[in-house]
Amino acid sequence: MKYRYLLFGYMAYYPSGGFSDFIYGFNNSDECTEKAEQFNLGYDYYQVIDLKNLQKGVIDKERFSCRVLDIEDKSLNDDIEDISIQDEDLDEAEFVLCSIKSILAKWES
What we know:
Blueprint: E1 5-10, E2 22-26, H1 29-36, E3 45-50, E4 55-60, E5 65-70, E6 79-83, H2 92-108
Antiparallel strand pairs: 1-2, 1-3, 3-4, 4-5, 5-6
């Protein structure tokens, strides 16, 4: 497996769906941060997929929230855990990266 994690992003008004929303793959938070500098992180929503554990992290930039879901459950609506991001002084791109790192920390612990 080349990447453990896949990042998807989409706008609220025009989600493409599936791999049309794919931004990049990465293996750890440092690699994610490096790649983020090369890509637009101006989307409304993000999903981080953990291919090893079959979990999905969902980031809602408009509400400054993120949560983890189990992707083996067909409904995809059962939250495993809400993740709180405390720093309100983050700009939007910083919030997205902070959320991704928080999700990865939950998965790797």
